[in-house]
Amino acid sequence: MALPAPGTAWPPKDHADIAAAYDTWSAWYSNEVAQLSAVYGRTTTRPGLLNRVASWFWTPKDTVDTVDDQGLVKLHVPVASDLCQVSADLLFSEPPAVTVEDPKANTKAQERLDLIAGAGFDQTMTSFAEVSAALGGGYLRITWDGTLRDHVFLTKVDADGAIPEFRYGHLTGVTFWRVVGTDASRVFRHVERHELDSFGVGVIIHGLYEGTTDNLGSPRALADHPATEHLAAVVDADSTVSTETPGLAVGYAPNIGPNRRWRLNPAGANLGRSDLDGIEPLMDALDRVYSSLMRDIELGKGRALVSSTALDDNGPGRGATFNVDKAVFTGLKIPPDAMKDAKFPVEVIQFKIRVDEHLTAAAALYGQIIRTAGYSAQTFGEKDESGGNTTATEVTAKERRTYLTRDRKIRNLKPVLETLLSKALEVDAKVFNTGVQPVPVTVTFADAVQESMESLARTAQLLRAAEAAATKTLVAMVHPDWDEEDIKAEAEAIRAERSMFPDPGLTGTVPADEVTDGTA
Asked: Which of 356, 415, 475, 500 lies 20 to 30 Å (CA to CA) from residue 242?
């Protein structure tokens, strides 16, 4: 397919609805009220949708996006970004274990993999997971630059900067794009095309275009812009870089599936579903409720109505003033006859602030948002009334919906990440001449909830007393993060100590699994 043709509408027309959805989710995720007003302001101009979106709270009604027609501030609750951050934390609060098949026999491969999945990898994956939750998926690609690192590394590309192609659910090619500069009416875009050549080898084609906001425009030389000039030295005459290995140097990982919105859309049927998909009206309503509460607080300021004679007259044409300590008073024009033999009449006005009603409505909306997104309320700080310490099993039971969602996301991401890291080892061997042979890679995600050390020790003690587990098994249980060699060494140390200082309460016999044959 190569690069897009000059003058192509951008984004392509068959991705227009997808791009519009990305804009909406991006606005909610960004917490920028100006973006929300801009998105819903554009939406009202689309035929057939005016009646449906006219009641959106964030549809701009005047030139000031954050103030309504009564001059009161419109408040935004950052629930969308909270959802996406929780999603990323559930996946990558602990770094995943990345290993090659049979690490002892493939020591060199494991060393190179440790570099590839080393510095910066955790941050890349956390950022990828958070934005992926907002946009329904994301792309991971193999990158290398000898001036930066002496090994390949993974970088992410957000879904709203990609035009993918699928066949039978498998990614067969993708065109990445990003705006690298604007100059008056001109827009400069860097386009990066990933595809397979006739031999099935992954290739990357780079291009620079000068166009407008909605048109790709004409090709330019890569050296014509500072953002792409470094690529001019690494591409061949066709602006291409070969990975020299089979398969694409990029993978797409859907956030979760299936995609309800684009199920019948050929361009979007294979894309993942956003955590924000379908809850936009609920988030809009939540902003409306909190803004209404702020309006009640504003209108609920105490007022006292008094005669204007209580104010300080500043002279003809200058009005009257009152010092700040009397700011609650409002002057009234009362006829002099009404003031005879009477004190200054004072009327106090205090509007009711409907705090409980607003917070109840907000809590109901917030709970529905969390459930629709696929999470448990306790994940977002619901108070545990049970008291005492909560075991990992109890936490998992109370947050079962959250961990079901987490497991679905892991099943989507794990095979893509393993395939890409295995490919990264191959590319690394070609580019940096490491001599590492192709080898499968395994990615293991940590448990979302872990038992406390006290609970693990108590369980190990009970198993030991029942003679139901070997020392090596107990050590592995108490220290799940240790590798095989550390576990074996600790088990042997425990056995040696027990043989030197036998417990008087025991028979003095050594369990069969710990016979002094050098193993434990």
From this structure: 415
